Amino acid sequence: MPELPEVEALAAFLRERAVGHAVARVDVLAISALKTYDPPVTALAGLSITGVARHGKFLDIDVDGLHLVIHLARAGWLRWREEVPARPARPGGKNPLGVRVHLDDGSGFDLTEAGSKKGLAVYVVRDPAEVPGVATLGPDPLDDGFTVEALRGIVKGRRTQIKGLLRDQRIVAGIGNAYSDEVLHAARMSPFKIADTLTDDEITGLHEAIITTLHDAVARSTGLAAQDLKGEKKTGLRVHGRTGEKCPVCGDTIREVSFADSSLQYCPTCQTGGKPLADRRLSRLLK
User: What DSSP line would sit under 136-177, residue for residue?
Assistant: First the structure.
């Protein structure tokens, strides 16, 4: 799933490639991806792209005051094309095309989505705050206002596991499953630790881990072409998706806890005092 660093890099990429160009037309192949009807998507034709922003994991393309807001969900992606085929696009394929945006110089981009579970969401709105997911976003960790004191106010009083808190977009915007694993590894903190139990020193360490991890990931992604961002994310991760490999910090074996539709990875030595966390899926099988 594209998270804050990848969406930030996509926004920078589109600022360079798309701003200043007019939208020639927008083809919608997956009707389920288009979440709004007023203004119609056809209203974008002939208007110029004036800016690109990011709200959490949402990409916001300003088209002369109308906003094309995109959420790539779990398996969506933006694929830039220097030349968009003139022939009408067809549905289907390995990465089915959901939406295609044609620009006035013949370039453009596709919004695709792999897998059977569809979550790609595209909105055409007059104000990004009209998108429900944008309106309820928590503070952005790259904003200046996201201080240690702000994080202290977020965690105190919350009797929830810190892993879930970091992933909740209503609490902190932009961090998903992968970077929450990376942040907690950098902070040397168990993903199951209860937020309200964090000491002042742990909050300070967690804040530093959030800022450093995200800034480093953004820096690695900056300047890359859109098609290279997925690979950069994967190679830059230290624990997420690396079950069974050696921890790059201590050499212990990275372990996994599986859930119904996701999993987390962590290092026992770095994060849990050497004790493996219970894999709840395995525990159910053993009962």
Answer: T----TTSTT--HHHHHHHHTT--SBHHHHHH-TTTSSS--H
Structural contact between residues 49 and 18, judged by C-beta atoms closer than 8 angstroms = yes
Q: Coil, strand or helix: which one is 254?
A: coil
**Does residue 140 sit within a domain?**
no
Among the candidates 83, 100, 135, a domain finishes at 135
CA-based R_g, the chain, Å: 20
For 173-185, write each residue's pLDDT tens digit: 999 999 999 999 9
Within a domain: 141 = no
Residue position matching structure tokens 């790259």: 142
Range of the domain at 227: 148-286
Please indicate, yes or no, whether residues 178 and 114 belong to a single structural domain of this protein.
no
- The pLDDT mean for the chain works out to 92
Residues 157, 254 within the same domain: yes
Burial class (CB in 10 A: 0-12, 13-18, 19+), 240: buried
Q: What is the DSSP letter of 206?
A: H
Number of domains comprising the chain: 2
Q: Angle at which helices 4-17 and 229-236 pack, to 10 degrees?
A: 150
Within a domain: residue 54? yes
CA 86 distance to own-chain centroid: 31
CATH number at 84 reads 3.20.190.10
Question: Does a structural domain hold residue 142?
Answer: no
Q: Read off the pLDDT band of 286 (50, 70, 90).
A: very low
> What's the whole-model pTM score?
0.91
**Does residue 211 surpass a pLDDT of 50?**
yes
pLDDT on residue 226: 78
